Amino acid sequence: xxxxxxxxxxxxxxxxxxxxxxxxxxxxxxxxxxxxxxxxxxxxxxxxxxxxxxxxxxxxxxxxxxxxxxxxxxxxxxxxxxxxxxxxxxxxxxxxxxxxxxxxxxxxxxxxxxxxxxxxxxxxxxxxxxxxxxxxxxxxxxxxxxxxxxxxxxxxxxxxxxxxxxxxxxxxxxxxxxxxxxxxxxxxxxxxxxxxxxxxxxxxxxxxxxxxxxxxxxxxxxxxxxxxxxxxxxxxxxxxxxxxxxxxxxxxxxxxxxxxxxxxxxxxxxxxxxxxxxxxxxxxxxxxxxxxxxxxxxxxxxxxxxxxxxxxxxxxxxxxxxx
Length: 323
Fold this sequence. Notes:
Helix content is 49%, strand content 15%. By secondary structure, it is an alpha/beta fold. The chain has two domains: 6-213 and 306-318, Alpha-Beta Complex (Spore Coat Polysaccharide Biosynthesis Protein SpsA, Chain A), CATH 3.90.550; 234-303. Strands 7-5-6-4-1-2-3-8 form an eight-stranded mixed β-sheet, with helices on both faces. The radius of gyration is 25 Å and the shape is elongated. It starts with 5 loop residues before the first strand and ends in a 10-residue tail after the last strand.
């Protein structure tokens, strides 16, 4: 049993004022239970405020003064969930022996953290929190999620089905993760590529405790696109295959046209010609768009801008820390 373990629970936040009181209460209780049972030596909750526009940061500072287990980082501006989570994990890699990442909305089962720590104490480096089922999701969201996971697997991406960003990571896996230089982050895929011993904890996902989802359909589609283009070049290969298929179709059409011309028959085909032009034109534009996604990611990577900037933190001793 790793009784010396310093555990940090990393919680990215964006406009979460309605739920933070309950989140702090539940996570504090979990840490106290783990300390009381001797499974960890000490525990901290690290809130990462991703440029919230409400009173989220004021609440975090208040919790930090009242509750010795709460720390906070305030990012200079909104950088998105994955970048904010990265900021917290990078901080944890320098200040803790293990870290659990969880969203602030309490949909993930905080009780599962105890099971994760048990696996960690047995020598497991990464413990994935995986949903048993998707009863709380709408029919559309449930099936689009299933399609996304299957698509990722078919494109060669490593990803755990029904796993989001609820997981435990040991210090060495955190350090390995933060050594990755890329700016286009898809953490649930990146963690799977680390290759350290892993396990799965299954849990039932709950309804959001309060507030509104920060991932509407538009953001979900954008996130899915980032995941696909960050972990697979197969779409580019499919473009080549599609291009060869169009060439084959065009050769068949040319042969057909020449045969009809030799027979002295007029080629009726205005409709088929227009359909072909529009179809091929759409395929070309789609292909250019896919290539453009990859070029855009290359553009972001070569600039090497900081993933985030810390405006303020609750711990005086850590205010000189730089990512």
